[in-house]
Specification:
Largest sheet: 2 strands, antiparallel
Shape: globular
Distance between the termini: 29 Å
Structural class: mainly alpha
Number of domains: 1
CATH topology: Hypothetical protein af1432
Helix content: 55-70%
């Protein structure tokens, strides 16, 4: 099952997601859909329904924890709810710019690779990095946050590069120009 917006909202309600998390997920979904539509217009194969559901549900794990593991916790919730594996993997792989199989154990993650690989995963992960709370922001703010926290900045920049290559233009500028029209 791939939940639509109503289904995603119902899942957030069932698990007690705070309103600020739901608003953040909706903002990430708006950016994700703008990117998804642009990629489809360029002839890229992308599952827009999965992108929408993944974006709307990417932080459902925050109903259980605000730690870095909220991605895999959210994926577990969605697996138990019978959500399609494509959406589950978007949620599992959206944290940071991805968590490698080598890094996962030190962060308390179950064994596995958590780096976004598919276009759907990359779109939602990138869109999440462009949103703070429920507002678009310059990508450099996320880079600075990664630097302060000692996260893998090169992987983050790689996420942006891949998004730009697929989009055919600077994904930050593309997002910021269009996001203001979505409000």
């Amino acid at each position: 099952m791939i939940p639509d917006e109503t289904g995603a909202t119902a899942l957030h309600a069932k698990y007690g997601s705070p309103d600020r998390i739901i608003q953040h997920c909706r903002a990430v979904a708006r950016v994700s859909m703008v990117l998804s539509d642009a990629l489809a217009a360029r002839g890229k194969s992308i599952d827009s329904k999965a992108v929408l559901a993944g974006a709307l549900l990417h932080d459902i794990g925050r109903s259980r924890t605000n730690e870095v593991g909220h991605g895999w916790v959210g994926a577990k919730i969605l697996e138990e709810e019978g959500v399609d594996a494509v959406v589950v993997e978007i949620v599992r792989r959206h944290v940071g710019a991805g968590i490698s199989a080598e890094e996962a154990p030190s962060l308390g993650f179950p064994e596995g690779d958590y780096v976004p690989r598919t276009m759907e995963q990359v779109v939602v992960c990138f869109a999440d990095k462009m949103i703070s709370s429920d507002r678009a922001r310059p990508f450099d703010e996320e880079v600075k946050r990664f630097e302060r926290k000692g996260h893998d900045v090169e992987r983050l920049l790689g996420l942006r590069r891949r998004m730009g290559e697929e989009l055919g233009e600077d994904p930050e500028r593309f997002t910021l120009e269009r996001f203001s029209r979505l409000d």
